[in-house]
Amino acid sequence: MTTPASFSVDHPRIVAAIRAAEKRTSGEVRVLVARRPTADAVADAQRHFERLAMTQTRERNGVLFFVAPRSRAFAVIGDTNIHARCGDSFWSDVAAAMTDHFRRGDFTGGLEHGIARAGALLAHEFPRQSDDQNELPDEIEED
């Protein structure tokens, strides 16, 4: 990633990517941008995952994209049912692809790419049901 001053994302594009992913799945996708530095992106992502009530989804199939620009760090974590079906390698692949975008300063593209990859997995493992409801907000969360 680059310096915090140059970090910006196109909020409408990210929200559109989240909504496009969620149209095909019962899964939930959130993006959180931390304004403070982090010593451990994964631990902070897990803390925010709980705080954002992502463990409360009906199928335990939420995904959080946590970005901490001041620390030049990010994490992608999924709830228990997602992790049980895809394991660590999937998340490593998503993170590697996002890193390529982030290194070029394309933060919006990196998040869009990660959201699309996660959305494809969610659609395969957790297809949208007729009674599906949007359980969590689609907007980018900032902390």
From TrEMBL:
<dbReference type="Pfam" id="PF04536">
    <property type="entry name" value="TPM_phosphatase"/>
</dbReference>
<dbReference type="InterPro" id="IPR007621">
    <property type="entry name" value="TPM_dom"/>
</dbReference>
<protein>
    <submittedName>
        <fullName>TPM domain-containing protein</fullName>
    </submittedName>
</protein>
<feature type="domain" description="TPM">
    <location>
        <begin position="13"/>
        <end position="120"/>
    </location>
</feature>
